[in-house]
Structures are given as C-alpha cells and as structure tokens.
UniProtKB/TrEMBL annotation:
One of its GO terms (cellular component) is membrane. Its main location: membrane. The keyword Membrane applies. It is a multi-pass membrane protein. PROSITE patterns: TM4_1. The chain crosses the membrane at residues 12-31, 43-66, 72-98, 233-251. This is Tetraspanin. The keyword Glycoprotein does not apply. It is found in: Membrane. Belongs to the tetraspanin (TM4SF) family. Keywords: Membrane, Transmembrane, Transmembrane helix. It comes from Eragrostis curvula (weeping love grass). InterPro entries: TET_plant (IPR044991), Tetraspanin/Peripherin (IPR018499), Tetraspanin_CS (IPR018503). It holds the Pfam family Tetraspanin.
C-alpha cells in the first residue's frame, strides 16, 4: 500500500528520533545506576532519563500514527510536538534574558580573567547562592576535580599568570588577585596579606577540598560558565526549533491525510493511499 509523502516523512523522522532516544535513555540509567557515580552524575541522570522517555514515547506515537493511520495517536503526537515547540521557545527567550548581563574582568598583567557574582542577572545569582543548590554544585566541582589540572602542572609564576584559565578555574582554584597572596605552585599559595577586605581571602584554603570552593568568586565562575553554555544552547535551540516547526507542519499534513482517508474508507486501517 502506498503512503502519502507526509506520512512517509513522519515515519522516517520518528524512526530516527526513536533510535536516538535509546542511547539517551541508556545513558541516563547508566549515570543513575553507577555504584561509583558522583553526586553530579546522579543529579544529571533524572533529566536525561526524562528526555529519553519523552522522545521514545512521542516518536512511537508519531511512527504508529503515521504508518498505521491511527488518527488519535497522530493527534497526541501533534499535541506533544506543540507543547515541545512552546517550551523550547520559552526556554530560548528565557536563556537570552538571564544571560544578557555579566562578563569577566581583565586583570592587568594576567592571561586570565576574574569574575564577580554581582555582575550577573539576579535570577542566576539567587539560584547559585541558594545553600541547597550550592552544596550540590560544590559537591559536583569537588567530585569532578576541576582544579586537578592546575595542581598537576609544574608552572612557575610567569607561566601561571600568562595561562588562560576557565571561569571555574579562575574563581575556584586560586585566591582573588586582590588578596595579594604569594604563588607557590599549582594551587598552593602563601598567605602574606591579612588586611584584605575581600571575604574570599579569608575563605581561601590550600587544602585540596577547600581551595576557593566556598568563595563568591567560585560562584561567579560557575555562573559565567552557565551563561556561556546557555548562550550556546539557545543558539542550538533556535536551529532545533525551526526543525521542529517543519516536522510539526509535516505532521499536520499527515494528520489531515489520515483523518480524510479514515473518513472516506470508514476505518483507521482501510483504504489505498496516494503517492
């Protein structure tokens, strides 16, 4: 039996989506089930599993609805796609709004930048400063050993100040420049100035589990990283949104064809389609 072009396209697109959902769902289950998994990995497992299940259910609904001419399944599929379009649009707008403020400050004679939490949007500041959220983020940073690269490097002072540090490395793995501490190597610093008014200077510790993980500069580094990543995600979302709108339009055509054929042939399975 020949199928209409729109039904074929929906079937092909949803087959691809279903195949993609399998490794996504598997990755989420694996992250949550790892015996030696970090707190960060377990935290990420829930949204990954939810995404995998959503894609799998929606793709099955679209695939069966298009190939078997099941009108109500196509209706469910189109409803889910419409919700996805609305959510993606809102998330994209929101991402641009909350990331329109804040940037790293260039430090004279340094290859890296430093970050201040107050420069970023109030919404991001509140999310990061929440004790519950920060304890989880801090645990993720420590488990992932974000400062280990600096600890392992055998750099002298000149090499260190000319190096390009990530926002998290700059904020969490060294004291702020305003502290005036003396660099020893890696993440070791000698406290030579106790008169600084910056509270981060008193928070700094040379201990591997201490460092500046509780500093405002560390929180600012996390926010700067989130801002950078969200901007990238927002751009990808725009491209994906255009793709989803096209798929949704094709799905509407498939739904119209299926409803017309079912009405004409008096059943959801009967009838000959048209190429």
């Amino acid at each position: 039996m020949a199928f209409r072009l729109s039904n074929n396209l929906i079937g092909i697109l949803n087959t691809i989506t279903f195949l993609l959902s399998v490794p996504i769902l598997g990755a989420g289950i694996w992250l949550g089930a790892r015996a030696d998994g970090t707190e960060c990995e377990r935290y990420l497992s829930a949204p990954v599993i939810a995404l995998g299940v959503f894609l799998m259910v929606v793709s099955i609904a679209g695939l069966v609805g298009a190939c078997c001419r099941v009108t109500w399944l196509l209706w469910v599929y189109l409803l889910a796609m419409f919700v996805l379009i609305v959510v993606l649009f809102c998330l994209t707008v929101f991402a641009f709004v909350v990331t329109n403020r804040g940037a790293g400050e260039t430090v004279s004679g340094r290859g890296y930048k430093e970050y201040r939490l107050g420069d970023y949007s109030n919404w991001l500041q509140k999310r990061v400063e929440s004790t519950k959220n920060w304890n989880r983020i801090r645990s993720c940073l420590q488990d992932s050993k974000v400062c280990k690269t600096l600890q392992d490097k055998n750099q002298n002072w000149q090499q260190f100040v000319s190096s390009s540090l990530s926002p998290i490395e700059s904020g969490c793995c060294k004291p702020p420049t305003s502290c005036g501490y003396t660099y020893v190597g890696g993440t070791d610093w000698t406290i030579t100035n106790t008169n600084s008014t910056d509270p981060d200077c008193k928070t700094w510790s040379n201990a591997a589990m201490g460092l500046c993980y509780d500093c405002q500069s560390c929180k600012a580094g996390v926010v700067a990283t989130v801002k950078r990543d969200w901007k990238r995600v927002a751009v990808v979302n725009i491209v994906f949104l255009v793709f989803i709108v096209i798929v949704y339009s094709v799905g509407c055509c498939a739904f119209r064809n299926t409803r017309r054929d079912n009405a004409y042939h008096g059943g959801w399975k009967g009838g000959r389609g048209y190429a």
